[in-house]
LacI family transcriptional regulator
Amino acid sequence: MARAGGKANLNDVAKQAGVSLATASRVLNGSARTVGAELQERVREVAARLDYSPSGPAQAMARGATNVIGLVVPDIADPYFSTTAAGIMHEAEPHGMIITLSSTQRRSEREAEYIASLRRQRARGVILVGSRTTDSRHEADLRAEVEAFTAAGGRVAAISQHRLPADTVLVENRAGARALAETLVGLGYRRFAVLAGPSDLVTARDRLAGFREGLRRAGITLDSADVIPGEFTRDGGYAAATALLDEDRDVECVFAVNDVMAVGAVAAFRDRGLNLPDDLAVAGFDDIVSLRDIWPPLTTVRVPLEQLGREALKFVLDEPGDGSRVRRFRGEVVVRASTPALG
Amino acid sequence: MARAGGKANLNDVAKQAGVSLATASRVLNGSARTVGAELQERVREVAARLDYSPSGPAQAMARGATNVIGLVVPDIADPYFSTTAAGIMHEAEPHGMIITLSSTQRRSEREAEYIASLRRQRARGVILVGSRTTDSRHEADLRAEVEAFTAAGGRVAAISQHRLPADTVLVENRAGARALAETLVGLGYRRFAVLAGPSDLVTARDRLAGFREGLRRAGITLDSADVIPGEFTRDGGYAAATALLDEDRDVECVFAVNDVMAVGAVAAFRDRGLNLPDDLAVAGFDDIVSLRDIWPPLTTVRVPLEQLGREALKFVLDEPGDGSRVRRFRGEVVVRASTPALG
DNA sequence: AGCATGGCGGAAAGAGCTTTCCCGGTCTTG
DNA sequence: CAAGACCGGGAAAGCTCTTTCCGCCATGCT
């Protein structure tokens, strides 16, 4: 509580150095104004001796700005988001920015709340990662908060999510999924099923749509019974895969719209006694590094997660900040053992 | 820059509501002092209308305390740390605490720096996760910063790391590794190798020591050539495993001191054409959830990562904060397919 | 010698809150 | 009915800095 507890403030430093507050401040900030060498030395020496630590909150007030960037993710334990976060932090460091982290536990209705909190903190910017967009009530709240934040002079960037009045970093999910479908068809697969993730997640929807497009070009259509929705998590993938098996469809290759689900699906198939990849091929999306060692290694679409984060941070830090710029990243299809070429 | 940009402050609210600053503040904080119902309503109404957002920095100044808790981890992209972080955030939420995240990129010499930054932010507390302890020069810096932070009234908690003047949450690495060794011996294994991780990491050292103890009880000793140091990462595990293979030792079971390394080792063995688990058994430590689906499923020691985080946060939030309390968690051996019973 | 410059240091005005202290009016109570 | 206890409200101090505005003194010029 008594955060002041015996610690020296700038006033103490100034007094002990026998200079004014203004001078002390100037010395310690390397201000434009010149200060005599002798005084500089004296001030610095005293500051060091008193173990002076400038008050962030006070500086923020006086300067009218903080160095805080807020990061809002659905689930920090998910490797997709933690990798993206790593990219952001990497970029933030050299700029002296402080990252505050909020995890919505995949309850996107909390995003608005967190942005409001960030506004209270007077954060410079917010980076929003991959939220949903269809629940119109919550979306309205979210838009309102984003606008309020922007109106207050803050900058907002979004990753993997359209429709927000903010600079946006996008993955070309559609194109990536389309290319993946074409590749799989090229490998000889004809009968597909898709573990489609949550239907209110743009990312999931786009990947499904792109995949469909790719198949259609090859004259293949996806029966609606072959599209299994579910959670965007490992367990969601497991459940969807189990459901698929229960329907007993005739399928050669399963596309899970993200790697995490794909891993769950692989586990489910194995639990049911299937021998992968011979009995069934599986493909994912994202190319999550920590999942590269599962067996069989997943065919997937590589997404430059860290770069997504870095670009988003650049958006937040860049001066201009006109209306809403967009930066797109292509995914690259990576074929691995989980989808061997057919006969 | 101009973060003030047109936004209303408490003064504006007070004026428009026709009350004093003090009253407005009291209403908005639900202060102990009672305020007439009518005024309350008026103030709230105006605040809402002006979209008033109290300034965090200003509140921090006036109150002499922030709601910031700093979290310092080696690498947020590592599932060990991201899971722990999730536990912390989970617990932090209901307390209205704000988490700021710093990732040292496994360069522990930066920890001191980050703590200093947190002190400047006037953070209430710091949670330090799993750093090294042997480099005496950096350790001295770190201790100094921790003490300075504490002297300034902040609270420090450490996870998986002794020797710091702070409340500590520990995993019983030694006992866990010992139990694991005994279990493996019970399964019939006799010839072991250990991928030991970095020698300056207490966690790694304790696990190795515990494993050795367990073996010794069974009359087995570990040749120093059977202990391969390396990085605490997937690639470190891969490299160490490769090195082990190159030495061509006669080994039945490899213990990697954490799961992430174990996964790297599994990949290395497979790349060398070994058929797991028949040709070689592998065990890990931590029971990282996102790694549960690798093949073969890893025998490991389960560590309650989220709980570690939660307890650490409790330490930071709890009133008392005497000297340095310690909370220990046992690990639980989990046998899976990667170490089948022998013969 | 007289005056305009420039350099350097200080006083003071905020920045936006919380909280203590004070005061006038009510309500209670003997 | 007077007096003390309360209650609700406001004025103002204080938290720790940054930055503008002033003023002093020493130069440099003419």
Remarks:
- Confidence is low (pLDDT under 50) at residues 1-5 of chain B.
- Chain B touches chain A through 64 residues (CB under 8 Å).
